[in-house]
Queue: 3 jobs
Job 1
Amino acid sequence: MAKNRQKRLRYTKRDKREFAVSYSMLAPFLLVFCVFTLIPIFCAVFLSFTSFNMLEFPVFTGWVNYRRLLFEDDVFLIALKNTLIFAVLTGPLSYILAFFFAWLINEMPAKLRVFMTILFYAPSVSGNAYFIWQYMFSNDSYGLVNGLLMSWGIISEPILWFTDPDYNMIIIVIVQLWLSLGVSFLAFIAGLQSVDNTQYEAAAVDGVKNRFQELYYITLPNMKDMLLFGAVMQISGAFSVGDITQALSGGYNSVQYSALTIINHMNDYGTVRYEMGYASAISVVLFLMVYFSKKLIFKILK
């Protein structure tokens, strides 16, 4: 009995030492997560129940900000509608396109695959690439698209692409799709490369006859984690559209708020009007939208 007890004690002490080493290696990442993610979330939730202008101490106001947001702020409803349109259009479509292009590129020779991967990934890390689209869809006759349409006789005067509510949303969706082939695209490429080729050979023996059957029975099941990761990234990107609308159409200064998103509305109150309590309430609502959307997508993909 005494020997068994001593063994259990020694085993426990050894485990504690191993756990201490593991936790010490996790500590820097945990610290960064708490400082830059967890604490800001709690601060935003707290400030959403206050009136705070960044100069005076926050004053607790209860549910006033949320009541104002949901029942009195008509502009927020426009931003909500635009954000949902972006999420519904760009989220699933960019997810499918990222996987489709990754699947096509994965079938190419090695050197060509590397080149095409860089080509597709470059827009997402190129910084402010909006000037390309500003030139293409410029509102005057010097814009590339307007110039071509006028030279072909399709239109007689320039179209105001970024100021006309009938066009600016379409252009911004196209730009967002172009920029969204980033991290998810790389994850899909990595997932496709990690599939063991012997599985395809075994599947051919079992009766799998074409690429689409290989994709359905072998590739997708092996890429479950990458597919979930890509879904999270695409959902987050779809709901966080703001820089594009601000750069191309003015965001909260767009005509009839036609390009206003929740991010633009939050930035308006947070960085222009300095109503940080109200801006925090907007951010909490957006956080809940993204959270429950991710839960729904996880349930669907599983």
Job 2
Amino acid sequence: MTAPDISKIRIAGFRSIEDAEFPLDRINLLIGSNGSGKSNILGIFELLHAITIGKLQTYVAETGGPEVLFRYGTKQTNNIMLQAEFGDGFYEIHLHPDAGSGCRIASEQLTLTTEDKTLKLVSSDTIETGIFAGVQADASWESFRLHLQSWTTYRFQSRCTGAEDERRLTEFLFRLKQTAPEYFEKITDTIRLIFPQFGDFLFREESGDVTLLWTDRQGGGHAFGLHVLSGGTARFINLAVLLLQPTPPRLILIDEPELGLHPFAVAVLADLMKLASRSAQLMISTQSVQLLNAFGPVEENTSSRILIVDMNRGTTTITVPTPESLAEWIEEYSIGELWQMNVLGGNP
């Protein structure tokens, strides 16, 4: 059994979000001004992922502790509530500040419904998850657990990768070339679309270690390290690997993928996202009008959805435009143009 996508999220008391609920589709585009809370919305899914893999306390510590996690600190907010719907499945958790620098799971519950049965699990007063830590001899539960634990977040920093990220990229591409060469070729062919001088990846093995290099087609096969790539080129390479892998995570979170990319590269990136959405659900935070336009108008029963993020009096709000609300506009303007004109909202 394959676990369904997330269909709806509700969260309260989390960072700048007082209480918000919004639906999700296969491709979800978050748009909004700087400081509106788009990163906090991505953080909802990072929080849920950390819970399911038993690393809630690590997540709390790495994100600044309860005073950052709970809305306006623990003196004003003492409960974070998160609900997630997965088709007929439902998960809810309540978090309270701990006496120390972490937080406790006050309660959590999971309901999974299949054609022939309903599975209900509950847990309360734990430091880490009491639902996903155990072993359940149930195929629907196992599929759901693996679904949530496969999620990944892509937040690109200033350059290509840090040492650890470069090591992971090297290991992944080295293994991919050996086990799924057709996907390796798809990645290299796609990189050449926006970086014509790129020849191929070269793996140099020394004393059991593998170093990833790339060759210049105009330089007689001369090999370079990843550190000489421009920020935009490095970003696109990482995104191509993420979106073209044979078995992508079930949910992929990407924060502003368009930064540093040429307009043609943004168009190619949009195509890669559509391709990846056949196997994965995507949550994309963006400020790119071009990327937004690549997904067309807002229509019901399509695989993409726009979520407009605003900051109102210190509170992040999320609205979803409907076909009815845009019917008179969409005949003459693109979605990106409507955003620029402030018809959609999501502007300072």
Job 3
Amino acid sequence: MFDSFVIVGTQVLTLFILIGIGFVCGKLKLLQQAGVKSVNDIVIYIVNPCLIISAFQRDFEAGLLHNFLLALMGAALAHVICLIIASLVFRRQDEGRRKVLRFASIFSNCGFMGIPLLSALLGPDGVFYGAAYLVVFNLLIWSYGQYIMAKGSEGFETKKIVLNPGVIAVVIGLVFFFTSTRLPQIIMIPVDYMASLNTPVPMLIIGYTLSRFKPSDLLGGFDEIKVYLIRLIAGPVILLGILYAMGLRGMVLTAVIVSASAPTAALTTMFAIKFGCDEELSARIVSTSTLLSIVTMTLIVGFAAHIGAMP
């Protein structure tokens, strides 16, 4: 269990170093707003889909499918728990803040942080089960998440629930898995290269956004603290209790909890930029939740790995 604590803490610190690089680049004007918006779109529309497709490049096995479906169930439950809590807690704030607060409470950094952490903790199988969480994450973030952040009804298009890069990548990946289809190396190598950008580039964007306001404002007010309590503690702890009571154990339990206990999704800032919401609030929440997750995620994931190994 101690080894899990060390791996989680190291991964979180690595992300903060990347955020720090983005912060310095922003201060030195090496990154500027126009360029950041373009890079933001590259991550959403190219890098994230490549990560998903890469995770599904493996041969079909019945046991893997069974565990994959269990991970899907756990992921759906994780989002429902946080969605309900956030809807009850954030009701009286002004619309601009409420959108970001709800979004930040519901969606975790399961791709940008969860996948690298799962790879370190559990290897290829852990990444595969993490992809199940990404399936639910992408379906919800491009439907309900987009609905939350869009500027009223005019910013939301129903067709984008289906015709968006995240969902399309999931469908393609599942087809590859069920048919045991492998992409040729000449295609797979570029896909893997793009997928490898999934961690550093979003962190640089967050660091740049942070460079635009005072570090003394990082923690924020009581609303932000409520987000941290939901995202980092209440959501994953309630989920762990429910899944354990349902009899889920082993690698699948750990994989789901890793994804569910991750800090606020980096896409919160990216969506805030895209839809013109409060991007400074979003960046503050993403960065502070990542900092706090050094403690919360380490403890929760370590405990999940410990009890998951128990009969």
